[in-house]
Fold this protein.
Amino acid sequence: VIAAVNGLAFGGGCEITEAVPLAIASDRALFAKPEIKLAMPPTFGGTQRLPRLAGRKRAMELLLTGEPFSPARALEFGLVN
């Protein structure tokens, strides 16, 4: 399975990107975990997968703030190839 992100990957889109073995993103991609702003934790395993990919402290920042992040940052975190 390959994920090709060319726009918003918020919530479930971000979590699908975390779950696939190969993910690519264009310069126009934007990622976020905004569920926390609605007082809901991410579903579909986002709280487990993101710390494994990005590290615990980086994942906590993204999961607790819900702020969007760029494809360059997603690459740095290991979210995309």
